[in-house]
Fold this sequence. Notes:
Layout: E1 6-15, E2 18-28, E3 33-38, H1 44-51, E4 59-64, E5 67-69, H2 74-79, E6 82-85, H3 97-103, H4 114-125, H5 143-156, E7 161-165, H6 173-188, E8 193-197, H7 201-207, E9 210-215, E10 218-224, H8 230-238, H9 244-252, E11 267-277, E12 283-293, E13 297-301, H10 308-316, E14 323-328, E15 331-332, H11 337-343, E16 345-348, H12 352-355, H13 363-367, E17 378-379, E18 382-383, H14 385-399, H15 415-427, E19 433-437, H16 445-460, E20 464-468, H17 472-478, E21 481-486, E22 489-495, H18 501-508, H19 517-524, E23 531-532
Parallel strand pairs: 3-8, 3-9, 6-7, 7-8, 13-20, 13-21, 16-19, 19-20
Antiparallel strand pairs: 1-2, 1-4, 4-5, 9-10, 11-12, 11-14, 14-15, 17-18, 21-22, 22-23
Amino acid sequence: MNAVQLETYRLSKHFGSFTALGDVSLSVRPGTVHALLGENGAGKSTLVKCVVGYYQPDDGAVLVGGREQAINSPVVARDLGIGMVYQHFTVVPGMTVAENLLLARGRLPAVVPWKRVRAELDAFLKTTPFRLDLDATPMDLSAGEKQKLEILKQLFLKPRLLILDEPTSVLTPQEADEVLGALRARAHAGNCSVLMITHKFREVSAYADDVSVLRRGRLVHSGAVADTTPEALAEAMVGREAGPEEVREELATRPEAELAPHTPGEVQLDVRGLTVRGDRGESAVRDLNLSVRAGEIVGVAGVSGNGQRELMEALVGQRARESGSVHVAGQPFAATRAENQRLGVRAMPEEPLRNACVGALSVADNMGLRNFDQAPFSRGGWRLGGRLRAQARAWIAEYGVKTQGERAPIRSLSGGNVQRAVLARELAGEPRLLLVSNPVFGLDFAAVADIHARLRAARARGCALLLVSEDLDELLALADRIVVMSEGQIVLDMPAAAADRQTLGGHMGGHMGGHMGGHMGSQMGGGHAARTIPADREAA
């Protein structure tokens, strides 16, 4: 058996006066898949970074195969057979897939015998759950393919322990099941042990043998998956004072959450024949038609890299439109500041700290970016700082933004709290159209529940929402209608109530063509026919 046991004994790590990890004793059994859960800031990343040598613990020990090891660098971890797939890509953009795989070894000869190496790589790929073009570069790959390359890099090293940080965030459901199924099979065959950080209870239930939960740097639960439930795990993650039922009950007391969902009204967003170029001049969005009604959430599903980012950037004015038209409430819309204010258009982009905030400015100033030049916050074009700070204090309290104060730089906030701050700003003033991209990516249970409740409440008040998400569970839970984007076009449009993961995933991966539309529509029944759109022509 190549799989190895990992143990941490009373592992602790401090950053100044802050305890990121306190006395954590964790055990990953050989040949098993062990899931690691916890809120943002619970210590998950700190724990695995201590295991792989990125951080040095202040106290405690890491044991590999029953022996204490001094892992003072990732190189030492690699020599011990420990590999890690990070949440953020580490591939070298200018190198081919073959070169990235070979570079993962760390030690290379002065002259690479490429004929022999290619044969070795081809043989290796035949043993993996997916294949990539060895001559492609990461710049040619979608986000999902880059994630596969990250996993392949580690599998190529034949690790005894493989650590995964949110490994399926950019994969289709079928790809996620294929990857996790293959990794579980490798673990159960004794080839490696797997420690997987995830936020998805479905992945824990379906693929993990054991599960551990960290909360505020402490280990609060560890045991067999078969002996617990998603509800119990959620409670362990956030504590009894804020378990899933308590979160829902607390949200339900807010006036906006008491509003019943409206029947969809008039078309609020109407996109016709939109074509948008990508970063390399390619046609990223092609002749796309889309509409969203008032009081409706339309979810956009698709594997990352199929035009979703370019679509949203074109709608909010961050990317030029090559052709086509965009109307909001029946009026031409070019996404100017004046039009946003007049038509009530707001946006919550992906990575808001980079795309919707000025990191060095205070939380108050960032919260005031929508209205700093409007009464009563402006006089002759100048901001009235006191009023902006008062507004920020009210929103911080209402949205539960954890910050050292409204004067703190917004870049000092955690990702979830930046999301809350931006959402507070964008939902203010009863917006009529909200453009949202991956609003809860990587956030913990409590933050997800809060943000989802607020998006539903906006819909209930008659706001039209266009929601791009790479998490099908999120779309199925929130959307009234789901469209699938593939290669820059919408290839499926169907009511969310009639959707299922298999159908959506098949279209996301490009495995279901337009000729299946009539058959699928008749299968759905009940008036909820799916509209499958030919790949070369999107229906109007």
